[in-house]
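To: structure subgroup
Subject: Chain for Friday's discussion

All,

I'm putting the inputs and outputs inline so they're searchable in the archive.
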Amino acid sequence: MKAKTYNVLRLVIFVTIIIGTFSFANAQNATEKPKPHNASQAVVPPSSEAADSALGDSLAADSLTVDTAATAQEVTAEQLLPLESDGMFKSLKKKFIDGSPGYMSLVAIALVLGLAFCIERIIFLTLASVDTNRLMDDLTKRIESRDIEGALQLCNETHGPVASLCEEGLQRIDEDIETIERAITAHGTLQAASLEKGCSWITLFISMAPALGFLGTVIGMVIAFDQIQMAGDISPTIVASGMKVALITTIFGIIVALILQLFYNYILTKIERLTFEMEEAAILMLDQIVKYKQNR
């Protein structure tokens, strides 16, 4: 894939993720209408007259007990129904709002930007991967048949750092072997640096996400103490509101760091594999160039 096409693809990924972030943030600020609960009220029979018998009072008491039990069952069923119908997204959205959108938005931005860099690196490394064994076999055949132009054309048509490394050696095939080795080593260093481009940003967001969560924890604790000071009393209800913000922000910060860490380790694995393939290809290419010079 050409460099221009890859840059356009990378721009589209970033724009799409940023638009999705703002859409998600707007959805958090939208207030949900409460669902009405149509709970039937218990019907209390009118009071009996003083002249009623004890049997009539007993029947009235039994009727009230049955109506109250039926009402309690209906209310409980209606309250549990929304909980069962709510999906995972709605639950996360509720927790996001409970953790204060102001603080949680920072954690969400860290997640989105970190994922953007992860996706960009994964696409780049996937496009840079080639069948190294097949490429080196084809190059070996062309070098042995002394078709250097064909070998250069094959390297030029093949994407990835391995082909670029081989092309660098073939372009200097008329120079001495020490010069060729230094050129391949220098070019390999540049290619390895291009593979790791953007990884520092991923590690930054991995470190920032828990830090932002802990920041929300400290702010939540400050809110709790302020509310205690204003109320002049230590009440579980007052303390719980601030503690809830503190714990939710910490949880989401750790979750974001774990998600980004998984992607980062996957990226490092692909980089290590490509680096190993580059080193192996450089050794094989130097061997073929030495043989080519000896058979002149």
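Points worth raising on Friday:
The longest helix spans residues 236-294.
The chain has a mean pLDDT of 74.

D.
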